[in-house]
Each structure stands twice: as structure tokens, then as C-alpha cells.
What does this fold into?
Amino acid sequence: MNDSFVVGLVSVAVLGGAAQWLGAVQERFAAGARFKSTPLTEKFGMDEWRARYGETAVPLLTVSEGGVVTVATADHALSPTAGDLLMGLSG
It folds into this structure.
């Protein structure tokens, strides 16, 4: 999945009330942040993800093993589990 596709996906997902959040994501991307996709496992979960990418990394969405996409919003925090693919903004 290329970066421009993900930017488009995130743009569509957040238009319902988080346009300001999208602006912040786009600013960070322009300043050098990059999208990271990380498969989560029993041994590498959110704590390890935070340790690797830092507290300023932003988890954006998950894709379950069954293909269900869950997008983080102001009203819905992610609850990723082992087997999910976590996509976030880092840097």
C-alpha cells in the first residue's frame, strides 16, 4: 500500500468531523513523518509498538485478520489485538 493511497483512505475516513485532525496528520507527513504498517503478535503488541515508534506516533487504523478495517477517530480509540495489522504515523 503506498503513502498516497493511505492519505486518501484517511481523508475519506475522517471527513465526518475530524478535519482538523487530518490537517495535523498531513502537516506531520509533510515534515517527514511516515506511515508504518506493523503486524501485531502475542509478543509484539501496542506497548512494544509505542516503545519502537515513540509516544508521538499516532495509531491510525487496524486491519483484522478477517479484513475488517477500523479507523481511529476522536470518538473511537483503537483496541488492536494480536493478528491485527496496525497502521500508524511515525516520525
